[in-house]
Amino acid sequence: MRTASAHAMEIVKATAPALEKHGLAITTAMYARLFRNAEIEAMFDRAAQANGEQPKRLAAAILAYAKNIDKLQNLGPAVSRMVARHVETGVKPEHYPHVANALLPAIRDVLGEAVATDEVLAAWGEAYWMLADILIAAEAQAYEDAEAA
Ligand code: HEM
């Protein structure tokens, strides 16, 4: 499990309000990048069909959870929901870099280099991978349980 450094957590908390203020723009920019990959786009198409609504919760969740990065142990029920959804839609560890590579440039697209400096993006990268590792571990367990059943 990767853990974000104390320094990264400080930066994430300090910049979370700016990211949230521009949350919709960042989300839009992130999905535009993510959906350049047809395989990934298909996962979201299936989710939208099953769901009947435009699935845009993923980016919002990353922004929201990252600012609670120093108390992620409180995420319990939210994690179970995400894991359930990810297992339904077939999310695997190899998909996580795609989201990181869409989200971090999207933050820079929207906030610009002056605000989204290399240091800020690196801190958000650490926050992302800390969250991702929690999900990846829980999903591995869920896939294993499903296979055993
Ligand atoms: C740290 C990384 C991630 C976080 C925090 C996250 C969070 C979430 C959340 C909160 C939801 C909505 C769950 C609900 O129904 O309440 C969701 C759904 C979903 N996620 Fe993730 N996710 C992450 C990574 C990924 C990755 C790597 C993929 C695959 C490319 C992915 C694909 C999906 C899909 C297809 C859905 C269903 C659509 C939807 O209901 O929004 N997620 N995720």
TrEMBL record:
Transmembrane segments: none annotated. Residues 3-140 form the Globin domain. Pfam families: Globin (PF00042). GO terms for molecular function: FAD binding; heme binding; metal ion binding; nitric oxide dioxygenase NAD(P)H activity; oxygen binding; oxygen carrier activity. The keyword Cell division does not apply. PROSITE patterns: GLOBIN. Keywords: Heme, Iron, Metal-binding, Oxygen transport, Transport. One of its GO terms (biological process) is nitric oxide catabolic process. The keyword Nucleotide-binding does not apply. This is Globin domain-containing protein. It comes from Sphingopyxis macrogoltabida.
